[in-house]
Amino acid sequence: MASKLIQVQSKACEASKFVAKHGTSYYRQLLEKKKNYIQEPASVDKCQELSKQLLYTRLASIPGRCETLRKEVDYAKNLWKNRTDLKVEDAGVAALFGLECFAWYCAGEIIGRGFTFTGYYP
């Protein structure tokens, strides 16, 4: 176990050195490549305008998302009506989806408690 820790530490050290050596050039290349997305001059007013555009664009997409949700619910209702024709693969996908939802719920609970695991210990 200690040897694994030393290996991980050495890999982390190598990665840190690589980033320190090449990080600045990568950063500059990335900014140059994505220059058309950079707003010049950067001002508080322009940032507020862009944030409002994002908000209202997201709000405008809600009806389309609701329609997609309705289609998904109708599909699930249809599957439930014809559950006798349900294949094992479909049931497995549904079970994995339910398990994923439960895992995200548990992760959210843990994050909400400040990354602490609580329980009753007599």
What would you say this structure looks like, in words?
The protein is mainly alpha-helical and 122 residues long. The protein has three domains: 7-38, no CATH class; 40-81; 86-114. Helices cover 77% and strands 0% of the residues. It has four helices and no strands. The longest helix has 32 residues, at 2-33. The mean pLDDT is 87.
Summary, kept brief:
One of its GO terms (molecular function) is proton transmembrane transporter activity. It comes from Brassica campestris. By secondary structure, this protein is mainly alpha-helical.
Set out the fold topology.
Layout: H1 2-33, H2 44-60, H3 62-81, H4 88-112
InterPro entries: ATP_synth_F0_gsu_mt
Keywords: ATP synthesis, CF(0), Hydrogen ion transport, Ion transport, Membrane, Mitochondrion, Transport
GO molecular function: proton transmembrane transporter activity
Q: How would you state the average pLDDT, rounded? A: 87
* Percentage of residues assigned to helices: over 70%
- Report the biggest beta sheet as strand number plus sense, adding barrel if it closes: none
Question: What's the helix count?
Answer: 4
Low-confidence stretches: none
Give helix and strand order, one letter per element, not per position: HHHH
The termini sit apart by: 33 Å
| Strand-residue proportion | under 5%
Domain unit count:
3
Secondary-structure-based class equals mainly alpha
Number of strands: 0
Radius of gyration: 25 Å
Shape descriptor reads extended
GO biological process, one term: proton motive force-driven ATP synthesis
InterPro entries: ATP_synth_F0_gsu_mt (IPR006808)
Keywords: ATP synthesis, CF(0), Hydrogen ion transport, Ion transport, Membrane, Mitochondrion, Transport
GO molecular function, one term: proton transmembrane transporter activity
